Amino acid sequence: MTIKTVATRPFEGQKPGTSGLRKKVSVFQQPHYLENFVQSIFDALGGIAGKTLVLGGDGRYHNREAVQIILKMAAANGAARVLVGQGGLLSTPAVSAVIRKYGTSGGIVLSASHNPGGPDGDFGIKYNIDNGGPAPEKVTEAIYARSLQISEYRIIDAPDVDIDVIGDSTLAGMQVAVIDPVSDYAELMASLFDFAAIRAWFAAGHTACFDAMHAISGPYAIRLLEQTLGAPRGTVINGTPLPDFGGGHPDPNPAYATELIDRMSAADAPDFGGASDGDADRNMIVGRNLVVSPSDSLAILAANATLVPAYAGGLKGVARSMPTSCAVDAVAKQLGIAAYETPTGWKFFGNLLDAGKVTLCGEESYGTGSDHVREKDGLWAVLCWLNLLAATGKTVNRIVEEHWARFGRHFYSRHDFEGIATERADALMAALRGKLATLPGQTLHGLRVVSADDFAYTDPIDGSVSTKQGVRVVFDGGSRVVYRLSGTGTEGATLRVYLERYQPDSAQHGVPTQQALLDLIAISRELADIAGHTGLTEPTVVT
Ligand code: G6P
Ligand code: ZN
């Protein structure tokens, strides 16, 4: 086996976004494209000689090819050992758990998360550091900078490694350990939750439906829910991971997880519904005819955390991304714990978790998690909810209604305008930023603006500053309209408009969400002149 040094030239645009480098599969299939980026990661880390890495992905199209390339490049770059999930599979939270359990230097996740897969779909790659979490911006910037300078990469000339059989082998002196993708993660879950109570809940005849959306959460959910906790077979639907996710869009929201939504509104609906995305880090929680908003889910888990064994001693603090509703802040206030507001992107929670400032974190984009790993964790959220149901004997709907009665309801919705030409989206944001100084004090549709700014964040642990993280306009009574451009798309730009209204009066809690937000919706369209800039008069997705 020989180490080849291959001459290459930089590709434009290998800049990691909110969560790694995501591009069309055809982009990744260009000769040297993946190799350049992988070598840029290794170089930006100061080399990987003697290091141990974790490697796995969500099984989407191009996963297996990418795993072979990365193994051969890791060997050529002198890595000591790579732990790779059997079949090249590992969910994102499982990568995080494995990095932490075995104390490796980091890991590589192959996924484009909730973006569609298949030959015409998306592929993605990101690097996670030794705490198990996504690399912080200073690392992703160094990777990008390196990608613009790269002139060669190293790779072993060798036959493919057998990644389908669990066990150890060597590749040009590097140890390759093929591991069961589920075991370490399942063991961690068993250490956090009251499995006996959940088992008893199922044994008493309660039912659940978990939609794996043909993505990587399937094997994890089948092992945990059906094989460990005694949920009836068939509880997990769409449980076999497919390279193209069955042609679907593996994003657990009401617009895409329609099979689950239909089941949960049927006359014989199960007691609990859950879903997860392509790489199993997102979650949606559903009761009968009720989708729990991710912001509410975070708040409810925070308010009830002590019912879960791992959090029985109370929470250190909580964190949410800026566009996530302030529901969890209300809980933190009552509990007397700190609540942090960070930019969008799980990586911003890493320092707070490492420093022991927070225990639970969440985002409006269907992400919830805790300090057990450094990624959001879809199945963890599902198990948390099952633990609450088992511990209280209440239904999902009752838990939600009681929460609103106690803390008030934060009505919340996100309106997405997809497929906008990048220049137009940029122009819209620039125009909006230009107006910010004049907004405070103005009254729009009867609502007085109390503040308007472009969110900037100074990390309280390392002092790093992130600017331009979204425009927020706050009204009397705490209602908010927030605008930002998505950082995870691969085609054009997506404008996200986040709408929030606080309603303390229980008599108003049953109003349909879109109705409760009507004036804010009108304000959001006019203020940014969305139709004028984009030609779109209605959002393409509402969650
Ligand atoms: C990924 C990240 C999340 C983030 C989300 C935002 O899922 O892991 O932490 O909230 O992207 O996506 P956006 O498209 O709004 O930038
Ligand atoms: Zn994901």
From TrEMBL:
Coiled coil: none annotated. Keywords: Isomerase, Magnesium, Metal-binding, Phosphoprotein. The keyword Lipoprotein does not apply. Pfam families: PGM1_C_vert_fung, PGM_PMM_I, PGM_PMM_II, PGM_PMM_III. Its EC number is 5.4.2.2. Its cofactor is Mg(2+). Residues 14-153, 185-286, 295-407 form the Alpha-D-phosphohexomutase alpha/beta/alpha domain. SUPFAM superfamilies: Phosphoglucomutase, C-terminal domain (SSF55957), Phosphoglucomutase, first 3 domains (SSF53738). InterPro entries: A-D-PHexomutase_a/b/a-I, A-D-PHexomutase_a/b/a-I/II/III, A-D-PHexomutase_a/b/a-II, A-D-PHexomutase_a/b/a-III, A-D-PHexomutase_C_sf, A-D-PHexomutase_CS, Alpha-D-phosphohexomutase_SF, PGM. It catalyses: alpha-D-glucose 1-phosphate = alpha-D-glucose 6-phosphate. It is an enzyme of class 5 (isomerase). NCBIfam families: PRK07564.1-1. Belongs to the phosphohexose mutase family. This is phosphoglucomutase (alpha-D-glucose-1,6-bisphosphate-dependent). It comes from Chitiniphilus shinanonensis.
